[in-house]
Amino acid sequence: MLKVKDLNVKYGEIHAVRGVDIEVKEGEIVSLIGANGAGKTSTLGAIMGIVKAKTDGEITFEDKDISKLSAWDRAKLGMTIVPERARIFPNMTVYENLEVGGYLVDKETFKERLQFVYNLFPRLAERKRQLALTLSGGEKQMLAIGRALMLSPKLLLVDEISLGLMPKLVDEIFKVIVGLREKGITVLISEQNTKKALQISDRAYVLQNGKIFKSGSSKELMEDEDIKRAYLGV
Ligand SMILES: Nc1ncnc2c1ncn2[C@@H]1O[C@H](COP(=O)(O)OP(=O)(O)O)[C@@H](O)[C@H]1O
Ligand SMILES: [Mg+2]
Predict the structure, then answer these.
(1) Pocket test for ligand 1, best of 7, 8, 11 (most atoms within 8 A of CB)
(2) Which residues are placed with Cβ below 5 angstroms of ligand 2, an ion?
(3) How confident is the model at residue 105 (pLDDT cuts 50, 70, 90)?
(4) How many domains is the chain built from?
(5) Does residue 90 belong to any structural domain of this protein?
(6) HEC secondary structure over the chain
(7) Residue range 107-117: mean pLDDT, rounded
């Protein structure tokens, strides 16, 4: 579904992503693991077309070269991103936030998407008239995901959603991601939380200083000695 070949991202002199290859097949949950500064956000940003940097490499989505397309054109083809520290609009209601997410879709589709999001997150449905600032941390993340889902993505990119969340909420939000796959959405997540990411993903790529250090099935990587030592604290 998604193929990234020899991706490079440069912020001036800073070469943040160096020759990265990533593949995501339909129906998979794939994780991109790495410490702070490894290049996760730059990689996902380049895939979505939102990174403000010089990028090169080949990015194909459903066999179509998208590397020169705008973020909006990529979204129209069926991929959206939940950015790192996704900002919801605190002084707007839950419904209004979702409306922003879906403002470019037609009325019928909007209704259908809204229902999809409310079914997925009944808690958002119960709170639809509430100001977003009154939501709990986990509910805010659900809203950020819900907003991205308003555009009917086939592929959802999720950038470090667990950042700053309490462990209990991390479990909850990862359950949501597993649930997305059950709804037919393919997911590429970036995470510093290696253990949780490996638990919910089929395959993973480990980024170190902008390069893929290891990749493989999540099961394999969980047993890998280097990964255990450097990322799992075993
Ligand atoms: N806008 C920017 N300008 C300059 N350097 C940046 C910018 N954004 C990220 N970087 C650098 O690129 C590298 C990778 O950053 P990032 O992709 O945010 O990593 P991660 O998401 O894994 O923490 C880091 O060294 C970071 O300092
Ligand atoms: Mg990041």
Answers:
(1) 11
(2) 40-41, 84
(3) confident
(4) 1
(5) no
(6) CEEEEEEEEEECCEEEEEEEEEEECCCCEEEEECCCCCCHHHHHHHHHCCCCCEEEEEEEECCEECCCCCHHHHHHHCEEEECCCCCCCCCCEHHHHHHHHCCCCCHHHHHHHHHHHHHHCHHHHHCCCCEHHHCCHHHHHHHHHHHHHCCCCCEEEEECCCCCCCHHHHHHHHHHHHHHHHCCCEEEEEECCHHHHHHHCCEEEEEECCEEEEEEEHHHHHHCHHHHHHHCCC
(7) 94
Q: Give the distance (Å) from ligand 2 centre to CA of residue 115.
A: 31
| CATH, residue 79 | 3.40.50.300
Residue 50 lies in a domain: yes
Tell me what percent of the residues of the chain surpass a pLDDT of 70.
100
Q: Which atom of ligand 1 is nearest to the CA of 35?
A: 22
